[in-house]
Write a structure and sequence with these properties.
Elements: H1 9-30, H2 35-61, H3 74-82, H4 87-94, H5 104-110, H6 119-149, H7 155-198
Helix pairs in contact: 1-2, 1-3, 2-6
Bound molecules: fe (ii) ion (FE2).
Length: 199
């Protein structure tokens, strides 16, 4: 007789996929963010990576393998995170500025509502919930830090401005050169005509 598939395999699978993407996203962000929030983002990234490995290992111990699933639009989100958009804008795009609002905590507790969960998996889930709560506080602190510093001037915007100024300067130089040519041309002509008049 084959053992019945535990009811929580799908949950473990979803955790692994979610945490893997969380790692990918935060790890990427930690390489381009303000140095002041780098260690916070990196800490959460490493936790996400560890959670993904822990629960994938548990799935294997229970006799199952991961069904990989990438969230729709995740690659686009990753592009946004790698871009030079400000950290504050990234937090807001991801909805991280509203983390913990609503029923986020209840969602985490629901993971333990299934009374058939074996003690080893339940132990891992308990640690996972506690770390996720702390990660949420870390991300909130990182967001508050960027908010307190205000929106930095985008380097792209200042580059654009520099390009515009250079272009205007070069146009102005062209105009001056044309004017000079005209003025010099006229004065040469008038000098020649004066010479002719004298003759
Ligand atoms: Fe997570």
């Amino acid at each position: 007789m084959t053992a019945k598939k535990p009811t929580y395999i799908g949950t473990l699978n979803a955790i692994v996929n979610g945490e893997r993407q969380g790692f990918e996203l935060l790890d990427c962000w930690s390489t381009v963010c303000d140095p002041e929030i780098q260690s916070m983002l990196k800490t959460v990234a490493l936790r996400e990576g560890e959670h993904a490995a822990t629960f994938e290992k548990r799935l294997c111990e229970l006799g199952f393998t991961l069904k990989e699933k990438r969230a729709e639009g995740f690659d686009k989100t990753l592009q946004m995170i790698a871009s030079d958009m400000s950290d504050m804008a990234k937090f807001e795009q991801l909805g991280y500025d509203k983390l913990g609002e609503g029923d986020g905590e209840d969602q985490l507790l629901k993971l333990l509502a299934d009374k058939t969960i074996d003690p080893a998996t339940a132990g891992l889930l308990g640690r996972f919930i506690a770390e996720e709560r702390d990660s949420l506080l870390l991300l909130k602190a990182a967001y508050e830090c960027t908010r307190a510093k205000g929106e930095p001037e985008s380097p792209v915007a200042s580059d654009d401005l520099l390009t515009q100024v250079c272009q205007q300067l070069s146009e102005l130089s062209d105009e001056v050169a044309k004017l000079r040519e005209k003025v010099e041309g006229k004065s040469t002509k008038s000098r020649k005509s004066k010479v002719r008049a004298v003759k």
